[in-house]
Specification:
This protein is mostly beta strands. 0% of the residues lie in helices and 56% in strands.
Length: 121
């Protein structure tokens, strides 16, 4: 069984910063791509940023230059540093990981429970 536990969300003023963390635990052989998605009220879930096991990153245009994704492979943890936050960044942020749990099984997608980020004055 694999669990993804997110932390770091909250309320912040425009221009402020937050750091999200997502730790994967359980029976894990390897983690390929890790990433963050977000979903605002009334909108579809969208990609924010991803990072591969080798460290290659990809960002949504709306967050480039403001957000930084990183990972600690020894801790099975992915981070999202969010700077210069805007009201339009308000959403529930979800962690996503592609995880292999046994040598004979295919890689599967796992999601965290979501953490609320609210940017408001």
């Amino acid at each position: 069984q694999v669990q993804l536990v997110e932390s770091g969300g909250g309320l912040v003023q425009p221009g402020g910063s937050l750091r999200l963390s997502c730790a994967a635990s359980g029976r894990i052989i390897s983690i390929n791509r890790m990433g963050w998605y977000r979903q605002a009220p009334g909108k579809v879930r969208e990609l924010v940023a991803t990072i591969t096991s080798s460290g290659s990153t990809n960002y949504a245009d709306s967050v480039k230059g403001r957000f930084t994704i990183s990972r600690d492979n020894a801790k099975n943890t992915v981070y999202l540093q969010m700077n210069s936050l805007k009201p339009e960044d308000t959403a529930v942020y979800y962690c996503h990981c592609q995880i292999t749990t046994t040598w004979l099984s295919p890689t599967k997608d796992y999601w965290g429970q979501g953490t609320q980020v609210t940017v408001s004055s």
